[in-house]
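Tutorial, part two.
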Amino acid sequence: MNTRVLSLELLQKINAYWRAANYLSVGQIYLYDNPLLKEPLKLSHVKPLVVGHWGTTPGQNFIYVHLNRVIKKFDLDMFYIAGPGHGGPALVANTYLEGTYSEIYPNISQDEAGLKKLFTQFSFPGGISSHVAPTTPGSIHEGGELGYSLSHAFGAAFDNPDLVVACVVGDGEAETGPLATAWHSNKLLDPVTDGAVLPILHLNGFKISNPTVLARIEREELEQFFRGCGWTPYFVAGDDPEEMHQLMASTLEQAIEHIRGIQRRARTADDATRPRWPMIVLRSPKGWTGPKVVDGLKVEGTFRAHQVPLLVDDDHPEHLQQLESWMRSYRAEELFDRSGRLIPELAELAPTGDRRMGANPHANGGILLSDLRMPDFHAHAVSVPSPGAVTGQDTRVLGLFLRDVAKLNEDQRNFRVFGPDETISNLLGAVFEVTNRQWDARKVPDDEFLAPNGRVLDSMLSEHQCEGWLEGYLLTGRHGLFNSYEAFIRIVDSMFSQHAKWLKVTSELPWRRKISSLNYLLASHVWQQDHNGFTHQDPGFLDHVINKKASIVRVYLPPDANCLLSVFDHCLRSRNYVNVVVAGKHALPQWLTMDAAVVHCTEGLGIWPWASNDQGSEPDIVMACCGDTPTLEVMAAVSILRQHLPDLKVRVINVVDLMKLQAQSEHPHGLSDTDYDSLFTKDKHIIFAFHGYPALVHRLTYRRTNRNLHVRGYKEEGTITTAFDMRVQNDLDRFHLVQDVVDRTPHLGAKGAYLKQMVKDKLIEHKLYIDKHGQDLPEIRNWMWGSAR
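Running the prediction step on this input gives:
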């Protein structure tokens, strides 16, 4: 292909548009007055605190203008993901130039007054942040934390066959674990049913103060690396604008034709060969077109260009002239008319309408979101003739429901299950009755459930990728869930945080439409690790989650399968939340009929009257439980108390919605003080068996009147042992709970003393038995509610 695809006139216009974007970017970093430099620059025109990041910005402006050209030439449905963290000035500048920014924020008008506001708001109190944020039109990716751009891009491309996601990856970002793994996502992309991801690795050579690895290896090694990852790399390198414009234009056309060729062969010629998708490696100077030398030190092309390359303040007044010279080098008078509007011959270079990357509907996914077709979860109800009469595996039951969700939405292609090789382990395997795992790499005859276009993405052992794909999928208007082992969801703590922050900010932006909630199913949890032991025991994700805004987070611990079905039906229908659901996969007692479960889950918590005996009087003790295993142990403890202390008045409360414990003033789900006191009493002792760390319950209830709260939960004790012994080691078992009751009800006298001695003896008997037989006592394994009352 002729590398000079641009006419001289078009090249000059593209270069001028790039200059305009660079000018606006510098103006955002430095100025809050005199935006068109109609008078000599004064120190009073410069912000008193200049902050921002210049280094990546001119390269991203360069990329944006060239993507605009191919969007128009090929009529592409494309949007832009900015991986380099603090490239905010570039995306704001370009969405302003294309008109999207002013449409969303009419006060930032396309004139001199609007330019002044555009510049002033950047990294300024009450303004916008220095990175690409929810406030930036066309963004689905918060640029503050590095590593997730490429997995977000693939999540956006799944089930969007006409979409091209241009993903700019910074060379610093490329050194993070999530991003390094994300290169392998190309083995899961179906060229028939999915769109395309065009990664553009931006090599500008430096991080904050260090060189970048990929910029310092030889081109041959770099090319071998990406070819080894299954890509076809195209290279664009240089610093001369004219040559770089021609090279970038030619290379982008090759990449788009390459993508279209892959899709054409797959969609019309039934070519099932795994494609080697194109990517671009762009090597340009850091801080390109900025100050070359400042105070005798080289800046352009070095780490010194990373943030603010030129300090301009009362301590550095000598830099004012250098800033003015830098800004005037872009010749703004040739780019903007006297009113401050981009001249028409440059404005027409941008796409129009929804083809503008800042206005692409996929980048505001709620616009495209449609409701899931939901099956009736009642159809999967576990028959519960009486509380605890049957056992069931909760997540296995949920798997049947998710199978039906996948089946009903097969044609819409808007629902997926994500997880790091744990869908079957977490007993959700029923989904494979109607779909497969998505997989486009080599298959062997014994493979199961692998196909190029499955509804399940669990064939890569990376929590980071599953989280990133799901976030990208949700942010572009679809639905899904992430199932994971509870202990290892901690791997994506930070990714969850960033998504929760995104939701918090977007909920305050009227133009951002609500998206489907991020749903976590945490199974293989802390109390079900008989063979894995200590490494697999960590319920701390719950503690992490509740740190986020109460308007965003929801946490559910259903005690049985029917409650799990009711909760998950609600979660899949919800919008703009993060829903965390903890459920077990081992066979445990089933407590509630479906009708009772729906009522219980709707209320979020409540007294179980059939387990309580305080009707018509005040309780002597309140036994509370939250989570499937704590519920089992509380019920077993209550059965012991009912047998040996029949006159003791016990109230049993089960909690499904953890946030009900928090004060109503702190969380929208929180109980009023009146309702809380009515349930838990103002002064009776509460023995609370909790799924996670005990301190979390204390933290949620610290405002409540009743201070007689005693929480048992996980306290970092565990090893390879029996299921019941795990509870014993953490004092969550029925025998320790009975001791707690006796210790807090001294009026029991001799009866209490003898019962306490009995349960202590049982704990010794238990230890001797498991050491000899390797399994729990028969009375533990075979226990049923009502059998010992």
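The two ends are 85 Å apart (CA to CA). In part three we will examine how such features are distributed along the chain.
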